[in-house]
Structure formats: C-alpha cells, structure tokens
Amino acid sequence: MNAYKNILVVADPLQDHQPALSRAVHLAEKSDNVRITVFLAIYDFSYEMTSMLSSEERQAMRRGVIQQREEWLKDIVRPHTSAGLDIEIIVVWHNRPYEAIIAEVYSQHHDLLIKATHQHDKIGSVIFTPTDWHLLRKCPCPVLLVKEHSWPENGKILACVNLAAENDTHDALNDKIIHEAKSVAELLCAEVNLVNAFPATPVNITIELPEFDPATYTDAVRGHHLTTMKALRQQHGIDEDKTHVIEGLPEDVIPKVAEELDAELVILGTTGRTGLSAVFIGNTAEHTIDSLNCDLLALKPDGYISPLDPNQ
C-alpha cells in the first residue's frame, strides 16, 4: 500500500465526520509525497424540475450549492492541510455519483479510492444497487471501503484467497492479494493471515447417488485446499498458524474469521461481474461488506477493463 501516492477520497455528504478522509490521512502520514483529493458528487432533482426558472438561473443555483459544499469541505480538511498535507477539493453536479467518481479516477489517474460504507438494506440492494457495489464492479483502481474500525499498530490483515482457482488469472490475483497484504502489514506493523473457504458437500448428490460417501468427498476437497494453501503460504513466507482453511461460503467464513482475529482490514479480489449475473449471483466482495466490522480492500485482476473506461 505504500505505493499509493494519489488517493481519491469520496466524501460523505451526510456528516461532518469523514472516516474515509481519516483513513487517507493515516496512510499519508506513513508515506511520503501522498496527494489526497476529496471528491463529492451532488445532485438535487428539484433544481431540474423548476420550470419557472431559466436555464441560467438553474445554473446559478447549482453553482451556489456547489460553492456551499466546497466551503463545508474546506472546513473539514483545514486541520490536515494546516499540518502540511496536500489535499485538493472537488465538488461536481452529477446524478450518478459512481460514474462521476470513476470518471475522476480515470481523469487524474488515482491509484486508490477510499469511501466510507454503511449497512445496506438487503432487498433494496437488489433493486437499487448502492454506489459501493458499482465501485466494486467498475472502478479500475483498488477500492478501500471504510467502516468505524481503528487501524492499530501490530494489528491483523486478513487476505482472502481462492484455492479452487482453475486458471492463471485467479492464481495471479491470489498472488496480488497476498503481496498487497504484506505491503499493508509492513506499513502498519501488522500481521498477515490467509483465509480460504471450501464448499460443503452438495446435498443433492447424496440424495441422487445413494452410494456416494459425503465424508470421503469432504475429506478430499479439504485435503486439496490444505495442500494448495501450504504451497501458497510457503511461496510467500507465511507461517502455517496464520492460515485458515474452513468449510462454508466465503461470505460466511470471511467475516467470522475477521471477527475472531479482530482484523483491521480484509483484502480480497473481485472480478467486476456486471449485468444480470451481478444482480442474481452477486460477488463475494459485495456479500461480505455488510457482515464485516472492519475495512475492506477490493483488488481487480491485472488487465481488468472497466465498462466505464473512456477509451473503450
């Protein structure tokens, strides 16, 4: 993480306390020459519906709202700029915040996006996808979703790896996740742990095939994952007692292990699934967010191309 020099912070328009900014400042204080941009996309549909106003008057009203928000953010960042940090403020008028955020990432080549996240309504998340989910799927740079959880010295980082990977892309993503975890750990004097969830025996198989032995099947799957984890931890120099291979769904296993470790940060990969498959299937990262009581850093595989890439 010490490679991040150009951080984009998404401001929370509903509160003066900005956890995302606090996290960015924490990182900046541990590195050199870090530039922080605090970004806010605002929109009020009522301003567009006022037919009694001319286009120029509506523009003036929008400029007034933007200026008001800029002054508000200046007050928030002043203690940090006074301490010598390089912080820029950008406020834009846009009705789709995630599009404005990703456009800013591309425009200014930000290498880390930090945003505070809140509990989502499970049903509403299917119908109205939260900005967090759009960013996880479509943001080209790493996304750090922040909750109210401190980053103490000598804490613990939980790196989530996929040991059922069957192609080079997933293997490379596992390596990327672990390298990132070790980088964060070095910066924060933290401990790296690895976690992998392997699937339970499918119930329908035991029903349809009476001669099927679920215990033997489970042992074989567990053995494969343990062997693969051993090779991975040895490759990256991680002790055996810092690895966790557990039966269950990733969205259940990861938060459970994170809570047991009192991890300050969970790091995982997301392939950026979009469209109907994302609505009905979802991504592990998205299912995991609401169950975590710590920060989540989501990484894309190398070569990922965002559907919002302006060059496409």
UniProtKB/TrEMBL annotation:
<protein>
    <submittedName>
        <fullName>Universal stress protein UspE</fullName>
    </submittedName>
</protein>
<comment type="similarity">
    <text>Belongs to the universal stress protein A family.</text>
</comment>
<comment type="function">
    <text>Required for resistance to DNA-damaging agents.</text>
</comment>
<dbReference type="InterPro" id="IPR006016">
    <property type="entry name" value="UspA"/>
</dbReference>
<dbReference type="Pfam" id="PF00582">
    <property type="entry name" value="Usp"/>
</dbReference>
<feature type="domain" description="UspA">
    <location>
        <begin position="4"/>
        <end position="147"/>
    </location>
</feature>
<keyword id="KW-0963">Cytoplasm</keyword>
<dbReference type="GO" id="GO:0005737">
    <property type="term" value="C:cytoplasm"/>
</dbReference>
<feature type="domain" description="UspA">
    <location>
        <begin position="177"/>
        <end position="299"/>
    </location>
</feature>
